[in-house]
Every structure is written in C-alpha cells, then in structure tokens.
Design brief:
heterotrimer; A mainly alpha; B mainly alpha; C mainly alpha; A: mainly alpha; 81% helix; flat; C: mainly alpha; 2 helices; 78% helix; 0% strand
C-alpha cells in the first residue's frame, strides 16, 4: 500500500493524533447513519417472526454486539502483539483503547441475550453455549483491563497486557469449542439463541446494517480513547 | 540443560519440603472446599453423586491456584530470579522446571487425595480411575497456565485476586474436559474423547506456556 | 410498514418490556461510554 517511510510516519503518536481525530469524526457520522438505516429496516421492513413474535427484534442488537465483542478482542490482541513484537508504543495504546469498548459490547450482548432468552426459553439465563462463551469473553476483557490498571509503569502494562491478550486469543477457540461440547452434554440437542439458518433476507439486512454501525462506532470510540491516552502519556 | 532443570526441580522441592505448612494448607483447602458443598446444597446422595466430578474439579482448580502466587515471588524477593534471567540456561527450561516442581507439590497430591473426596460424595468406585486420570492430565495444565498469570502479576498489589481473575477464564476448557470425562463415564459412555483432549491440552500447554511464562517474567522484572 | 399505530409499536406484541429493555440499556451503555470519553478528553486537555 504505502512506502516504508509513510508506514512508520503514522506509527508516531504525534502524527497519528490528528488523523485519528479525522477518522473518528467520520466514523461517528457513519455509525449514526447506518444505525438509523438498520433500525428502520429492523422495525419497519422486517416482518414479524412466526415463532417468536416481536421478541426476535432484539436480534438486531444482540447478534451485532456479539460479533463486535469477538471481533474487537481479536483486533485488540493483534494490536497488542504488534506492539510487543515491534516495540511500537502506538500499537499498544490502540490495544488498551479498544478493550473498554469491546467489554461494553460483550456486556450488551449478554444483557440483550438474557432479555431475549426470557420470553423465548423461559429464563433469563439458560447457560446457552454462546452466552456462556460471551460471559467468559467478558472475563477475559475485564482481566486485561484489570492487569493494565494494576501496573503503574505504562511500558510494563503494555507488554504484560500483550502477553495476556495473546494467550487469551489463542484460548478463545478452545474455550468456545469446549463450552459448545459442554452445552450438548448437559442439555441434549443444542439449542442456540441465534436464528435457524432460514432467515428472512430483510432480517439479515437489518443485522448487517447494525453490525456495520457498531463497527464504525467501535472504531470511533477506540480512536477517541487512543487520543486521550496519547494526551495523557506524551 | 537437563542438569539445570534437575537442579531447579530439586531445589524447589527442597524449599517446599522445608515449609510443609504451605503445601499442607493448599491440600487442606482442597478438602475443606469439597466439604463445604454438601453443607450448602444438602446431603441428598443422588445429588452429591451427580455433582461430585464438578465439585472435586473446581476444588482442585482453586487449590492449585492458591499456591501460584508464591511460585515466583520468593525467588523474586531474594534476587534468585534475576540470576535465573541472566544465567546461561535457557529461561524456558528454567520455568518449565519450576512449574514441574510446583505441580509435584501442589497438583499431584490432589490426584492422590481426590478418591477420598469421591468417597465422601459416594461416587461409584468404577469412576475413581477416570477421575484420577483426568486430574493427572489436567493439573499440570493448570500449573502451566497459572504460572503465566503468576509471572504477569509478579509484585503487583492485589496480586492474588488479580491472578485469579486472569487465570480462571483460561482454566475453563480444562475444567469442562476434566469434569466432563467423569460425567461421561458416569453415564456409561467412554471418557476417551475428553481424556484425549485433556492430553492434547497438556501437550500444547507444555510446548507453549514456557515461552509465555519466560516472556512475562522478563516483562515483570525489567 | 408493520404497525397499525404507535401503541402497537410500543407494545411489540406483548414483548415490549424485553425489546425496549434491550434497546434502552444498549442506548444507555453507548451514551455512557461517549460521556465518559468526552470527560476523559476534557481532563486530558487540562
């Protein structure tokens, strides 16, 4: 994409600072527009579900939030790994900036999952495989944030967090599959809170629009936070 | 390299034996926690038999985690850790030896005591073998993963609790496979799948954890 | 359009509590994050 010089030009916190601001502003606007479009499709275009009635409309938040929570963890781990490997401060700052937003999406996924579970499966928490994995993911996020908060030296915090994030991201598939198996053992046929494969295309459109909206929101929030971190540290 | 490893293992075992109370406390914790559950959920035999694998596994997990914060703290305090970091032997080998010593002292005894707890819960004797094997395969993984946490939190305030927060989510697959293997055996099915997965986790952890522990130690002591 | 009127919209076929409970908490969470970010920016500038 760019020459070696340009690549490292933006690796400096000072030069990245204004760029982050510009991108963040664009992303806030994009997120708002996509959210309006997604919610419009979700509430006024997508039809009522045959089995779940109107309760299924929670899906337009639950699934995008869950996707984002997992995606942001991987992105966070990548930034942390780059910061550890190349010793670049900005990469580690990005990882620290993404964590709270990722944790927030995880919480939203859990909350909406619980409120979706109550009318659908009868209880607020049913130890569904995906919800349980989301809960563990929340613990992973909080652990990362707690570790960084407990270390005073910023460089040690960056590097320790990076090791934890890498160990975490390697473990996430293992955790996910073991929880899947555990769920089938204890509940018979696995029933997931996500929809069956045949979904009305309008429902899928709504979900995708909201997912994009959350993604842009996540980028904007992380960039604003990294600007704060840059200000605080430099 | 092997000589260095053997030396470290012997040293740590000697140190542990000189303070038998540390070792004994963790084992006592295992027994006490396992005894608490019936007091909390009632002594209905069928219920206890059903929850036994999970309870024993959780108690083993917590007990193994208790002694983790001491893994590097003592050496860090008296400067031995710095010597290890500067020494000729590869750090990966040194930490592997330390974790092995930790497991011999904190994990292996759990395997030995577990059948007694199983007796308390009236678990079918046929399942003792699976229980012991699952703990035998699982507790080293717990020590390896826990050591990563111990290295990351070295010297931090709130160390013990923070260590627990970091390490418990990573313990989940081991717990699920370990307790699950005994549950499968209890249901009359073969526990082979879960035990093989545990063995696989052990191999992967033994291969990669020492790297992570060494990296974390370097980060924590700079 | 799916709805016969606003009252139907808010009722959500009887599931209004769950649907709006989800959306409301999500909105509160996002708003809180934005608020905290703005406060952090202000303090960092000072």
């Amino acid at each position: 994409m760019s020459t070696a010089i340009k690549w490292f030009w933006f690796a400096s916190p000072q030069t990245f600072f204004p760029l982050a601001g510009t991108i963040a502003r664009a992303c806030w606007i994009g997120a708002a527009l996509l959210a309006v479009a997604g919610l419009y499709v979700g509430f006024f275009v997508a039809p009522t579900d045959a089995q779940q009635g109107e309760a299924y409309r929670i899906i337009f938040i639950h699934v995008p939030a869950a996707w984002m929570s997992m995606f942001l963890y991987v992105v966070m781990a990548c930034w942390a790994a780059i910061g550890l490997a190349f010793n670049t401060r900005l990469s580690s700052m990005m990882a620290s900036a993404i964590a709270p937003t990722g944790a927030l999406f995880t919480f939203v996924a859990l909350w909406t999952g619980a409120l979706w579970g109550r009318p659908t499966w009868g209880a607020y928490w049913v130890w569904d495989a995906r919800l349980t994995s989301e809960l563990i993911l929340l613990f992973l996020y909080l652990g990362f944030m707690a570790l960084q908060a407990a270390i005073d030296d910023p460089r040690r915090a960056d590097r320790a967090g990076a090791v934890l994030a890498i160990v975490g991201v390697v473990n996430v598939p293992i955790i996910y599959y073991s929880v899947q198996w555990w769920n089938t053992l204890h509940q018979g046929a696995s029933v997931s809170l996500t929809r069956a494969p045949s979904m009305a295309s309008t429902m899928l459109t709504g979900m995708l629009l909201m997912a994009l909206a959350f993604w842009l929101y996540g980028i904007a929030a992380s960039l604003v936070r990294v600007r704060c971190i840059i200000r605080e540290r430099e | 390299m092997i000589a260095a490893a053997r030396c470290i293992v012997r040293r740590d075992l000697l140190l542990a034996l000189r303070r038998p109370s540390d070792v004994g406390t963790a084992l006592l914790f295992f027994v006490i926690v396992a005894s608490l559950f019936p007091l909390g959920i009632g002594a209905e035999p069928n219920l206890l038999r059903a929850v036994a694998p999970g309870v024993i596994w959780v108690a083993a997990l917590l007990s193994s985690m208790l002694s983790l914060s001491r893994l590097f703290a003592a050496d860090h305090a008296d400067g031995t850790l710095e010597q290890m970091l500067l020494g000729a032997a590869p750090l990966g080998v040194i930490v592997a030896a330390k974790v092995l010593a930790h497991w011999l002292v904190a994990g292996l005894p759990l395997v030995a005591i577990a059948p007694l707890i199983a007796l308390q819960y009236d678990l079918a004797p046929a399942l003792y073998g699976t229980l012991a094997l699952s703990l035998l395969l699982g507790t080293p993984v717990l020590s390896l993963i826990g050591a990563i946490g111990a290295a990351l939190t070295l010297g931090l305030r709130g160390g013990g609790v923070l260590l627990a927060l970091l390490v418990l989510p990573l313990y989940v697959p081991v717990l699920i496979m370990g307790a699950g293997s005994v549950d499968m055996a209890a249901a009359g099915l073969s526990p082979q799948g879960q035990l093989q997965l545990l063995a696989a986790l052990l191999v992967v952890a033994a291969a990669f954890a020492p790297w992570a522990i060494a990296a974390a130690l370097r980060i924590s002591t700079e | 359009m799916n709805w016969g009127g606003w009252s139907e919209f808010w009722a959500m076929g009887g599931y209004g509590f769950y649907v709006w409970g989800s959306y409301a908490v999500t909105a509160v969470c996002l708003a809180t994050e934005v608020f905290l970010l703005r406060r952090r920016t202000r303090e960092a500038k000072a």
